# Entry
Amino acid sequence: MTPGDELLFLALGGSGEIGMNLNLYGCRGKWLMVDLGVTFSDPSFPGIDLIMPDTAFIEERQKDLLGIVLTHGHEDHIGAVPYLAADLDVPIYATPFTASLVRGKLAEEGLTDSVTLHVIQEDESFTLGDFRMRYLPLAHSIPEGNALLIETPFGRIFHTGDWKLDDEPQIGVPSTAEELKAVGDEGVLALVCDSTNVFNPEASGSEGSVQADLLSTIAGAKGRVVVTTFASNAARLQTLANVARLTGRKLCVAGRSLDRIITIAKSCGYLQNLPPMLDFDAIMAVPPREAMIIATGGQGESRAALARIATDQHPIKLDTGDTVIFSSRKIPGNELAIGRIQNALAAKNVVMITENDAHIHVSGHPGRPELAAMYGWIRPEMIVPVHGELRHMAEQARFAAEQGIERGIVQTNGDIIRLAPDGPHKIGETRAGRLVLDGDVILPADGNTMNERRKIMIHGHMSVGLAISAKGKMLGAPDIRTKGVPVEDDREQFLADAAKAVGAVVAKGKASGDVESLREAVRIGARRVAFEWTGKKPIVDVTIVQAG
# Structure
């Protein structure tokens, strides 16, 4: 698929799911990529931490890819850059804060000299082929959240990225209603828009609005206070620093990602008035009523600071009457992990406060009133919902139609959409798979490695070793071992039955001259015994040694 005299849109990630954003725009033979993110693993991917979009489509057309433009610095928009950008071999464009995050990731992977990174100021325009672009600041839960205004020969695209409306953003200066109306006045072909919070009938709320409840909650706490929030939410860090100062508490930060965000934010001119930070020993020496800790781990991450604090594996200790404040929302899929940490804290008689108990968190994504306001300012000819599960995107298309945007399309990863001329409509589809980061290796999410690992996780593993003579007779007893096969109390009898079955297979002699056929017959015979005993079908490996 090489774009002709047309404007195309193709999502390889982030449409039909929340996370792993990768969007492509095609025009006159060339492609532009917007964002390159990851999503986090779940139990269906054992041993995997990160999942990335499969970029095979654009890798096959790498000579036609102009560059990668990043809207902001959240992991679901930049997290795959250090793993995939070098192979794509095109420049990356980002505003200063996002560029600093990316630069750190590239340095960790030893790619500083392999990937070209251009820093673009928020008021600066730049051109790649037939695409002329500029950033438009929008409020979000990280510094320098931006929409991207893309001018093409077929009309202008307003690609929102992640956004919300905020009258008190604490950090940064979002575009005003007047500035957004001016964009709409010049005409917009398509609004490509965040769908995450479309079911919320209320506006997401201002970052400035959470300070009052955080202040009253922390002022009323009797012992140490630990607050966990998203590390990237620099505005929340500023709010918490203000609260620490107003309540007379000394401040400590626990978590490498928090340290990194604070360092980068300061280098970009943010968080300039934070109070001095105490180290772990110093904060523990402070009277509990005067101590406040900001910690990572509010999503239940087992290696983050909060999990280690909850399980007494951290220098910071909590006692009865101390308070932990979850100044964040639960990301779907993390409920069990968060619950484990909260149970560990409950065992210590720690007081826990969540967004259900007080107004201590606001979302970074637009509710329906904010969407309606944006529609009214931008007045696009069509709506293309992204960044949501299918139900979110379908609902945004319906809502936009109610607000007067009659042309729209509900696409999903892999759908090739012609926006112009005469769009939007689907003209084809391509594979939109997933890749996994397994240790230091990138693999297909549906490849042999992951499929075998799932089977082993569910059914267990057996190994069968045997020796046979030149005439095909078994020499001695087979060596059979199991891992994860549920035969604990009756293990010896199970192994005896399995050995008997293997011996019977060899004794039949049907495959005495064909080792591979014998290997397969032994595998099936051993697995049959396991299934009869347990109802499981373990992975069975067979080793045959031929004597003489």
Notes: The mean pLDDT is 95. The longest helix spans residues 515-534.
